[in-house]
């Protein structure tokens, strides 16, 4: 069986050193993606729509993984990668304490061996096993983020602005500015981890000043 070690291959993108802001050039990668928005008066942890989207995304990621691992001819094994989120503001201004104007694209990295036909079969299988209205919104898409500032944030999500400010300062000192596309990669489960020990990779595309 062929084993694709995605965690090792992309270690510099998913396991950055703690306490260090760095520039990374993120190549074109392939993801299972789904879009959504937080409902008025809600936040991600309590949003019914967010929970539905999470169920569809993880369902597709694991169904796809095991379909490759169990196939009779040329089986392939690979890890289900970390959950990632591209966050945007639907209206108004960004405020970490106000979450019901946030829109998002949630995504999980999958290897290049996954073809559109494989993905379509996975969604059809998922619909039979775990019907979910959000399944229809899943998509397989390639995404190139390009040059970014990246840092590992350790601590609660509410403290992320401190790390983001360090990233902004680093970018400016190196002749760049942060662009749109606040990107988070969740290396821990907030339902189980001590908030002070949560690890989140933060990433922002940059451009010249």
Topology:
Layout: E1 2-3, H1 6-9, H2 11-14, E2 22-37, H3 48-70, E3 76-77, E4 83-89, E5 102-110, H4 116-129, E6 139-154, H5 160-173, E7 176-178, E8 182-186, E9 199-208
Parallel strand pairs: 1-3
Antiparallel strand pairs: 2-5, 2-6, 4-5, 4-8, 6-9, 7-9, 8-9
Helix pairs in contact: 3-4
Describe the structure.
This protein is 28% helix and 33% strand. By secondary structure, the protein is α+β, with helices and mostly antiparallel strands. Strands 2-5-4-8-9-6 form a six-stranded antiparallel barrel. The chain is globular and about 55 Å long.
Descriptors for this entry?
single chain; 209 residues; alpha+beta; Multidrug-efflux Transporter 1 Regulator Bmrr, Chain A; 6-stranded antiparallel beta barrel; two-stranded parallel ribbon; 5 helices; 9 strands; 33% strand; globular
Shape: globular
Overall structural domain count: 1
Distance between the termini: 48 Å
Kindly name the structural category.
alpha+beta
Mean pLDDT: 91
Number of helices: 5
Q: So what's the CATH class?
A: Alpha Beta
How many beta strands in the DSSP annotation? 9
What is the strand arrangement across the widest sheet? Answer: 2-5-4-8-9-6
Helix content: 25-40%
Major β-sheet annotation: 6 strands, antiparallel, barrel
Give the percentage of residues in beta strands. Answer: 25-35%
Order of secondary-structure elements: EHHEHEEEHEHEEE
Q: Would you identify the CATH architecture?
A: Alpha-Beta Barrel
CATH topology: Multidrug-efflux Transporter 1 Regulator Bmrr, Chain A
User: What is Rg?
Assistant: 18 Å
> Which stretches of 5+ consecutive residues score pLDDT under 50?
none
CATH superfamily: Regulatory factor, effector binding domain
